[in-house]
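Handout, tutorial session.
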Amino acid sequence: MKKELRIFFTAMMFLTRLPVPRFTDHSPDYLEKSVKYFPLIGYMVAAISGLTFLIFNKYISEDIAIAASIIAGILTTGAFHEDGFADVCDAFGGGWTKEKILMIMKDSRLGSYGVIGMLSILFCKFLLLKELPKFTPDLQAPSINIFYNYRYFLLTLLAAHAISRLMPVLVMRFYDYVTDPDSSKSKPVATRKPTVPVLLIPIITALLPFAFMSWHFLLAIVPVVYVAFSLAKYFKKWIGGYTGDCLGAIQQVSELCFYLSMIIIWRYVI
């Protein structure tokens, strides 16, 4: 049990800026095994973002609440995934060879493609999150329990952050890691592919929110998987596999794809 706690806190330290116990370190062994808790960390980020939304929505406005929830998520993770997405935009936008792409991706400076990509994904995330409360049936007859009124919205947040963090783990299982491993912060996570038994834990964890929703919402997972593996295939074509930044980009795009899929299901299926 103590070992599993250390592995969990290692995942928490790797993916977020939340405080962890002092006994948590950067042990390569624990970091390698921490991938099974990535969706669980997603729940934590979603919980912080959802609570922020509820507070600001109650006392200010819905738009401000959505913006605040996005900022809360970014502060929680330290823009870990957003930074990866921006680096991918710069690298694949400005590089035409594997060597050039990897070189740009390692550059800490942010270029035009990265800025445009970052602004675009945040803008899309805001618009998609703005649509979600409109399709929450409970708002037609709200109760005094705000968590009950927004339970579908909150469940969607939980599912989105969990599923989107599951996608990089799946990509790690089926694709190869590329770049200089000695200088990469993702080396311990990516040096060994997750085994099938290890994959079962994050898969089951990521699917838990769907137990409290209509089965129709499971359909949202299909386009997310397709988009995630399409990106992985694109990365393999150009650089022979994935990097840590590529995994961050997959997480961000998967999250947006999940929100869009949920909205479509709400509007046209349910």
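The second record follows below. Compare its token runs with those of the first.
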Amino acid sequence: MTVATYAPRHRLRPLLAAACLGAATIMASALPVQARGPDGIADVAEKVIDAVVNISTSQTVEAKGGSGEGRGAMPQLPPGSPFEDFFDDFFKNRRGPNGPRSGGDMQPHKTNSLGSGFIIDTSGIVVTNNHVIADADEINVILNDGTKIKAELVGVDKKTDLAVLKFKPSRQLTAVKFGDSDKLRLGEWVIAIGNPFSLGGTVTAGIVSARNRDISNGPYDNYIQTDAAINRGNSGGPLFNLEGDVIGVNTLIISPTGGSIGIGFAVPSKTVAGVVEQLQKFGELRRGWLGVRIQQVTDEIAESLNIKPARGALVAGVDDKGPAKPAGIEPGDVVVKFDGKDVKEPKDLSRVVADTAVGKEVDVVIIRKGEEQTKRVTLGRLEDTDKPQPASAKSTPEPEKLVTQKALGLDLANLSKDLRSRYKIKDSVKGVIITGVDNASDAAEKRLAAGDVIVEVAQEAVANAADIKKRVEQLKKDGKKSVLLLVSNADGELRFVALSVQ
């Protein structure tokens, strides 16, 4: 379970509890029955409890002692520090009375962790979180009656933090099915069951606090937020509706203490079901790929593109080898509908494309220069490309005399060989380079910087700095409030930026 800090160990205060008991009894009798939650909670818990399992993992960790990094958590203190002797004694005691073993290397040791999961098939298929079993050498499933069985990993999806396990059952199992998380309503009662703090089989209840919550944890954030008590060890456990269907997988909490403060997040069952199906079938995720880079359509950008109201996903770049290019999608297009589904913001497009089958032909509705167009696209497959590409080494010739123009709070210059070399700009990047930015300007606020290259102004290509200045002056005369720039970085990655011309 992801939290801000570890939960503190609390001590019971029986005197305080006794003093408050009478008042609590009076208050409870005055409250309506509904304040305790619906009566069906006990029936649901009894029905599904045997399908909820504990996940036990072990991992071998190699640790080193001695000097430098080998001292593990030993703080690096200046010689003569008053804390030096204290920490030396502390870490020596941890290593044993004879100091470090084997010339400074400590023996490898095993670490254990516990999480939760649930059975979706009586053949022994279990769903949990990826972070519960990540890097584990051994995984065991512990049933509600205490039976411990070794499990195998079927597959994981790091982007949604989900994993599927399988084990050979020794008896008849209870399995649960997925419900429809799209039908959840705010305020609807939900039930969480899991293994908080290794207590096992713990049932808590609460309501749906929010849906479609984006907490910037991953590219496909779409969490259910609940105030049902979720703590360390609940990770991977199910969130049920009152019919006993799984409508989410408990994954994250926000907490300054490590314990529940009523803000928990679950991956919705619609997402989980699709991921689990692919992991069972392929052992991996095969997501759809459109081959575009997208960004938010701000009010300023919407005004520049004649889009009212601001909506959709703005195409900032098109992959030369992607499906969007042969379909005729271009930078500056705004995607407002994909395969019949409305796209209100970039995250909507990312999710719906990822959930669409590889190779499927879909209609993509775009707005180009104020008019809607429909493009037919055959989706490709998304490949993980997280490795950074090293910049190629380039020689630095003698600097040329720099001639600049000023516009929009920017110092602008024609893109010469000297400037291309100085800022390591790829040969494929064409336009006018920014050599300076006024710190008090709108451009600085929009994070434009020296080395960025302006490729287009108002969706028209530019070749020299004087041309930009003329176009900005013309836009002012035409009464425009902002100008839309297509900006490239040194590697050729594009983005749109709207700047005020007033």
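Points raised in discussion: The chain has a mean pLDDT of 80.
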